[in-house]
Amino acid sequence: MIKKEEVKVEVEDGRVLQISDERNREQEDKNDKWHRVEMSSDKFIRRFRLPENAKIDQVRAAMENRVLTMSLPKEEEKKPEVKAIEISG
Description:
With 89 residues, the protein is an all-beta fold. 0% of the residues lie in helices and 52% in strands.
């Protein structure tokens, strides 16, 4: 099970959102005749290129019930101004 403390959310190179998780586990069994140690490692990385109008400093992440929710506000796109022109003649 992934814990929110194990998940990293970072913005790198200005416009790349990286979500990663790395877990190392160790399981040990022993008795009078033997001793066994099993180690495993899991790694997860996903990268997404963010749009040009993303507000990088306002990226937010929340994790609840193993669901990661991202909030990425964007600046409003400036719409071209339409100006009426009189037609003479």
